[in-house]
Every structure is written in C-alpha cells, then in structure tokens.
Design goal:
flat, about 50% helix, DUF4148 domain-containing protein, about 100 residues, 3 helices
Length: about 100
C-alpha cells in the first residue's frame, strides 16, 4: 500500500511539474513602454551635476571633536572611585 501510494504521489508530482514548465518565459507583456521628454544630453548633464555635488564620505562617519574640560583625569578617577565606594554606582549582580 505504501509503495503504491508513493509511486502515485511521485507520478502526480512529476506531471504537475511538467505542466508548470510548459509555458514560455516571455516577459514582454510586462514591459512598460514610455517616451521621455528630455534629451540624452540633458540627462547626462544632470547625472554629472549629481556626481559633482555628492559626498563620497559615508553618512555618520565623522568623529566629533573632543570636548574641552577643565577637569583632570586623576580628579575624574578619584570621583568615580569614591562614588563606587559609597554605592552610587551599581556593580555586579546588584546593577540595574
């Protein structure tokens, strides 16, 4: 029973794939046809203008200038150590 069912399923599947591939791959019916109003020279001039004004630098790649501060590195480190000692900065499993 299982072998007959398997062979019948394969035969149906094989015939269905043959039907699906019987059509021509002609996509000309989906082509959009239009006529433009601009000349080739106008389009080329516009493309050249865009390439001249476009930046080659990726967006967001600039690094911000360092901020000016009157604090010394040692002072900031000392304040961080003091805040950690007083429990103002959570650490380990007690953090947020």
């Amino acid at each position: 029973m299982n072998a007959k069912f398997l062979l019948a399923t394969l035969a149906i599947a094989a015939s269905a794939t043959g039907v699906a591939r019987a059509d021509d791959a002609d996509a000309s019916q989906y082509v959009i046809k239009f006529e433009g109003q601009r000349t080739r020279a106008e389009v080329m001039a516009e493309a050249a203008q865009v390439s001249r004004t476009r930046s080659i630098e990726p967006a967001g790649s600039r690094v911000a200038a360092p901020l000016k501060s009157s604090l010394q590195v040692q002072q900031v480190r000392a304040e961080a150590v003091e805040a950690l000692r007083l429990g103002k900065i959570p650490s380990g499993e007690l953090s947020f």
